[in-house]
Amino acid sequence: MAKYLLVYHGGGMAEGEEAQAASMAAWGAWFEKLGPALADGGKPCGQAKTISGDTVSDGGGANPATGYSVIEADSLDAAAGLAKGCPVLQSGGSVEVAETFDVM
Predict the structure, then answer these.
(1) Per-block mean pLDDT, blocks of 10 residues, the chain (104 long)
(2) SS3 labels along the chain
(3) At CA 9, angle to CA 83 and CA 82, rounded to 5?
(4) For 44, phi and psi rounded to 5 degrees?
């Protein structure tokens, strides 16, 4: 089985304790639903810089990453299907799915 990087873009932190608890519960439920396909739950991302040639820009570019996870799946399509349940989608965000390769 291949590993796939899920890069989260956008979305946002829920406001208020109750909404934050509900958001965390949604993430926990989704991770549980992924079961053994979840290789690394990942982490949220903070400040970013984009390096391009000799240029360094603040802010992470046009669509900065807000977090990541790593899953295992039989194909890119299967990984994309698993990503469709991601809670970041409920808060207006998106998920980029990319296959990773072992090269060393």
Answers:
(1) 95 84 94 97 91 87 90 98 95 95 86
(2) CEEEEEEEECCCCCCCHHHHHHHHHHHHHHHHHHHHHEEEEEEECCCCEEEECCEEEECCCCCCEEEEEEEEECCHHHHHHHHCCCHHHHHCCEEEEEECCCCC
(3) 0
(4) -70, 160
